[in-house]
Design a protein that fits this description.
The chain contains eight helices and 20 strands. By secondary structure, the protein is an alpha+beta fold. The protein has three domains: 141 residues, Cathepsin D, subunit A, domain 1 (Beta Barrel); 86 residues, no CATH class; 119 residues, no CATH class. Helix 4 packs across helix 5 and helix 5 crosses helix 6. Helix content is 24%, strand content 25%. The radius of gyration is 32 Å and the shape is flat.
Length: 432
């Protein structure tokens, strides 16, 4: 579906911007322009080409609008900042930033003597420009050019689709467009099917509310019941299966064993409270309860491989500084992440972690650790290790040895009692 827009930029004078000497990195900060505009297609980090229309300038010219999107700029410190809602006008030879549109996004514009300073909503300096002799404010700005626009957009969209528990793409886009959450980038509405979604939550086809064909006379169309009643308890018509669907998909996406379903339920609850719902208009359950928008920048794909820093007091020079674990989401009540170490059978809580969201754990290497009883792990001891707790490589067999020693002591005591009873019986026989 195409969106058609018509812009009236009668306070913009394109001929005044002809002094850039062919330098396409020059951007003009204009308080007369109502919208951000550029003629460089390659600068966009994402572009919606379905948005089209025309814009009218002061000289009476009408030029075509062929898209709208975002451009990522690189600051002097290397920090990336994205500028949204920039119109792509292919015939425009210059780059224009509308100061009016910037203030609508919460930015602050300060003009003193010959300086213009543009600050973000947090008060951090974005651009400082000196006024030119022709009373224009222009400055070179470095743009981060994507290596492949389509690949970058797709990768970001699918990554957040997995982080949010494989939520619908339309819901994701709506959350960003209506600013229902903080920390989530722009995403596309993907049309490709997600194999994990099909495995975890594929539904039956709905029956049409109205038949395409109606019989015109008696007995022309006869219906017969050959299978009996059809059970309605399917995901297609059960509105209460959404929670179960989310944690089921979380387990199947990274091939996590069902034994960790409790962690999947906990993390799915964390996600559902931060995802848009039909019960609240343009709000998440989190905002409905706490009256503030949730920040979901911390989210990582459930079940992906992570590398946790080893914080031990007796590490040698050649010892590993990191170990591979499985991400189980965030730890409630802290800013740390919760992980599971399948080798040591430990729950690890740590902030010092690096994620590999495209990799899952190879469970085939741990076939010997699975208990004989189906659907259960053989976990003789589960240790919860937090950041800074001594040696995190404590051998779990140490606890088994202690338990075995206790059992041996009990057996020895039982044997001694049995021997004492036998001696008493022998002494009684001798007296008789």
């Amino acid at each position: 579906m195409h969106e058609v827009v018509f812009l009236n930029e009668e306070r913009v004078f394109p001929k005044r911007f002809d002094e850039c000497d062919g330098n396409t990195s020059i951007w003009y900060l204009d308080n007369g322009a109502s919208n951000h505009m550029t003629g460089k297609r390659e600068s966009f980090s994402n572009l919606e080409e379905s948005i089209q229309g025309k814009v009218k300038f002061d000289d009476g010219s009408n030029v075509e609008i062929v898209g709208k999107g975002s451009i990522t700029f690189i600051g002097k410190t290397g920090e990336r900042r994205a500028l949204r809602d920039i119109y792509y006008i292919s015939s425009l030879k210059h780059n224009i930033i509308s100061l009016g549109q910037a203030t609508e996004m919460g930015c602050e514009v300060n003009m003193k003597e010959d300086l213009l300073m543009l600050k973000d909503p947090r008060g951090r300096l974005l651009v400082q420009v000196t006024r030119q002799s022709n009373r224009l404010y222009k400055t070179p700005m470095e743009v981060e050019y994507p290596k492949c626009l389509q690949i970058q957009e797709t990768d970001v969209t699918w990554t957040w689709h997995a982080r949010l528990g494989h939520v619908n793409f339309g819901v994701m886009k709506n959350m960003v467009d209506k600013e229902m959450v903080v920390g989530m980038p722009q995403v596309k509405h993907e049309k490709d099917e997600c194999s994990t979604c099909l495995v975890g939550k594929q539904t039956r086809k709905y029956f049409p509310p109205k038949s395409k064909y109606r019989a015109s006379h008696t007995l022309e169309l006869v219906h017969g019941d050959l299978c009996g009643l059809i059970s309605p308890s399917t995901p297609a018509n059960n509105r209460y299966t959404s929670h179960r669907t989310v944690y089921t998909v979380l387990l199947k996406a990274m091939k996590i064993p069902n034994q960790l379903w409790v962690e999947a339920v906990r993390h799915s609850t964390h996600l559902i409270n931060r995802i848009a719902t039909k019960a609240l208009e343009n709000k998440t359950p989190y905002e409905g309860l706490y009256v503030k928008k949730p920040n979901i920048e911390h989210l990582r794909i459930f079940g992906c491989v992570a590398f946790v820093k080893i914080n031990g007091p007796h590490l040698k020079k050649m010892d590993d500084r990191s170990r591979m674990v499985i991400n189980l989401g965030t730890e409630p009540g802290s800013k740390a992440y919760k992980h599971y170490d399948p080798v040591a059978k430990k729950i690890v809580v740590s902030r010092d972690v690096i994620f590999d969201e495209k990799k899952s754990w190879d469970w085939s290497t741990l076939s010997a650790t699975v208990d004989e009883e189906p659907g259960s792990f053989k976990l003789p001891h589960i240790d919860v290790t937090e950041e800074g707790d001594g040696d995190e490589h404590q051998d779990p067999q140490h606890h088994e040895e202690q338990n075995n020693n206790k059992e041996e002591e009990v057996v020895d005591a039982g044997e001694q009692e049995q021997v004492a009873e036998n001696n008493d019986a022998i002494m009684k026989k001798k007296k008789l």
